[in-house]
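tool_log.txt
---
The assistant was asked to compare two proteins side by side. It first ran the structure predictor on the initial sequence, then on the second. Raw inputs and outputs are pasted verbatim so the downstream comparison step can read them without reformatting.
(1)
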Amino acid sequence: MDSTSVVDGGSAPVAAGSLWSLLQHGYQFDPQRTALIAPSQPAYHLNGLVGPAAPDEDVPLSYMSKTRRLIRLGYHKLNAMGLTDLLAPSPSSISCLSWSFAQVHRGAIRLGHILERASVKPGATILIFAASCAEWALFVWLSALNNYTLVTMEPELLTKGEETLKETIEKLAPAVIVVETLDGSAFVNAYSANNAGFRLGISIGPSAEIPQKWATMSDIASGVFPTALAKVNPIHDPDHVCMIFFTSGTSTSKSKGCKMTVREIAPTFTPPVQIPPLRRPLGIVDQYSFQGMALALLYGCWYSSNAAVLTGGSFHPSKTLASIATFRPFFHAMDPDNVDLIVNNADYTVEKVKSIKVSSLNGSVMTSEKLKRVQKAFPNARLHAKYAMTEGANLFGWPCGAPHAFELPVLQGVVSSGYPLSDVKVRILDKQGQVTPRNHAGAIHLSTALLVRGYFDNVSPDSFYQEGGDGWYITGDCGILDDDGRLYVLGRMDEVDLNQNTIIAPATIGNALMKHFDDMVVVISLKTPEGEIEMHAVFEKHPANASRANDIVGKELGAAYRLNSVTSLEELGLMHWPRTRTDKISTNEIRKLLRRRCYLSIAER
C-alpha cells in the first residue's frame, strides 16, 4: 500500500465525440420525444421557428429496432433498481412550452441560417445575457453545430454598468450578443455599434426600437423558412474552446473565466452510466444558465434521450418545488446548503418531492449532518456527494457503485468524495510543497485532461504548472487521502488551521453543532492581526449560548477545538445568508462583517 498522498485513477477514457453528436442521441432515438419543458414560457412560443413536434424526415427503421431493444434493456435495469414507476405515464397535460427533439433540432438549424446570413463564421463567440430559457437551449444546440464559443453571463450585470464587464466584453469580442431585453443595455448597444467584429444582436423580449444589426426572437420566428431542412455538416474540432464558464468567486471574490475545449468537456457531459428513456423528465435545471452544472444537466438529459425541465432564472425554492410536483423528474442537483431553503418553504411536503430518485450534491463541503438533512428532505433519493468545481467535474466517485448515503466513509465530520476516476491523478502537498503521508491534510493538486488548462485572459497563471510531463492544477482546497485512496475535502486551504498537530476545519466544527441544533449554522475562520486562525459560528436565526456551543464542540471533538464567538445573521445586520453569483453562501461577505465586528473597535482604540 502506498503511504504517500498520491493516487492515480488509471488510464484515460475513450475520447467522446463532438458536442453535436452527443445532442443527436435523443433526436436519433425518437425525434418526437419531449426534449425540453419550460414552465415559465407559453406553449406556442417561437412556434414559427421550431415548427411541429414531428421530424421533417423519417427515422430509419433499423434505428427504431435499436430503440425497442434499448427500451427493453432500460426496463430491466429499472426493474432491478426497483424503479419501474419511472416508466409510468408522463404528466397528462402540459400547458407550458414543451419542445420535442425534432423542434429543438429544427429551431437550432434555422437559427443557424439567420446567423449565417449575418456573416457569423464558425468558431465565433456568442455572448448570452439570459436566464435558462428555451432560447438559451437553442443556442446551446447551435453552438455545438457550428463550433461557436458559448459564453453565458447573468443578465443583471448589464444594468450595473461595471467597467470590468465592459472590458470583459471587449476581450471576448463576441460576434453575437443575446439579451433578454434591449432596455438598460447601454454599453452593449455601444459595443455593437462601434465594434467591427460584431455581426448580430438578438433580443429575446420585444423592443419598441430595434438598433441596426439587432433583431428580436419574435421577428426571427415570424420569418419564412424552407419546409425541409438542409443537410448539416457539423464541425469536429476537439481542441476548439467551445464554452467559457465564469467561477462563483467564492475563494477570491473575483470571478475567473474557465476556457473549456470540446476534448475537456465532452466526457463531463456524457453520463457515466447508461440511463434508459423515461416517460417523465430526467432532470430539473434550476441553476443559473451560466453555471456549468446547468449545461451538464441539459447534456445528460439529451444524451440519454430524456427531457429536461428549465425552471428559468435563479434557484428559487417555490419554483423548484412546483416543477418537481408537476413534472416528477427523476434527478435533481443542488448545493446542500440550500436544503433548508426548500424544507422551510411553505410549499414543501415530502409527497411533492417523492419523484426524485437521485440527488447530486455539490457546491459546498459535504458533512455527515448535512447529508442527513438532505436525506430527510428527499427520502426517496439516492444521494451522491460530489467534489466538483467550475474548472472540472466528474473527477471523483465510486467505480464499483456508490455506497448508501449513511454508509459513506466519514473523516473529520466530512463525507468522502470517493476515488479518483479514470484519467485523474490527485496528490496532497504540505505548505513546503512536499507530498504528505496518507491521512495528513494539505493542498489538493489535480492532473487530468478533463480540467481547464488556463483561465480567460491568463488570469491566475500560477494555478497551473507542469511536472513530469503532466499538467497540474492547484485547486486551493484542503483535503486528505486515506489509506484506501479516498478523498475528503475539508474546505479552502486558507480556512483550515493546520498550524497545530490537530486539523481544525470550519466544516468539522459546523458538523458537530448541527448534531445538536436544528438551525442552520455556518462556521467561519478568521485570521487575526497576529496571524492566528479563529473560528466563529454564525446561526441563521437564534444563536446558541456561546458557553453551551463550546461545551458541545469540546465534547464532540476535543479540547483543541473551540469557538471564539457565536452570533446570528441578525446580529451581523443581515436578514438572509449573503450569496455568491452562483447562490453559494458567501463566506467572504460574512468574514468581512465578522472582522469589522471583532477587530474594528480594537483598531480604533
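(2)
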Amino acid sequence: MAFDSAEFCNYFRSEPLDSGMLNLPGFLFFWGITFLVVTSLVALFKHERPADKSSLVHSDPDLNIVDSYKLLGSILKLPSIQKFALVLLTCKIGFSASDAITSLKLIEAGVPKEKFAIMAVPLVPLQIVLPLLLSKYTVGARPMDIYIRAIPYSCCIHQVSLYAMFVASMAFFARVSDPGVGGTYMTLLNTLSNLGSNWPNTVALWLVDALTWKQCTGDESNTCSDPALVTACEAGQGKCVTQLDGYYIEILLCSVIGYLWLFWGKRTIHHLQSRSSSAWQVSRVGVS
C-alpha cells in the first residue's frame, strides 16, 4: 500500500509524479507467481525424513482425506487440546475493539490510508528483531510465560505486544504438537488461534453501531438509528450528530474483559504448560 501511494513514493523521487512505484494488481500477481513457484519447488525437491514409529498414526502413514479428518477429531478429543482451544478462542476478546475498529475510526477522522502504510514501516524491523530477542525465553519448557506477560500491555499499546504473543504461541505450538502427525497438529492450533482473532473482531464491528448514540439536530426524538431515520433527519435539514461513540464504550468493556480474562487465563496456561508431553500426544487416542 505504501508504494502504491504517489505521496509516499515522491519522498524518494527527485521529481514528483502522480503515481506510485507499484500497483496492487501487479504486487499480488508477482507474489502469487512467487508462491506457486516456491511451493512447487518444495514439493519436488524437499523430502521428509521417516517419522518416529512410536506414534500410532504412523502405523498407517497413508492417510486419506477421511482419515485426516478422523485424526483431527482425535486431536480435538484430547482434554489438553480442549482446554487450550478455549484459551485460544477467548484470549483476543480484550483487544478486539482496538484491533478491528481503531484504524476505521482514524480513517473516519480524516487520516489517509497511505499514512497507515507509512506508520507500519517502523514496525517491520521490530517484527524481525523481536523473535530473536525472545528466542532465549521461548525455547524452554514455558514459552507461554511471555504470552501471559504481554497480554496486559496488549490492552494498552496493542500491536507491539501482539508480536510477542505471536512468537510465544508459535513456540508453544511447536513444543506440544505430536511430531508423528506432521503439520496437521500445528495447522489445527493455528486455525484455532486465527478463529480466536477473527470472531471477536467481527462481533466488535457489529456492536459498534448498536452502542453508538446519535441524535438529529432538527428533531431530538430522531435517534438516527437506522437509514430511514437518517434520511428523515436530512430531509428536515437536520444533521445526525454523535452524542456517544460506541467505539469508546467497546474499548472500555474490552479492556475490562481482557483483564478479567487474564485472571483465569494465567492459571489455565500455567497448568497447560506443566502437563507432560504425553497429555498432548494423539497416539493415546488413536485413529480408527
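---
observation on (2): The CA atoms of residues 124 and 130 lie 10 Å apart. Strands lie at 213-216, 240-244.
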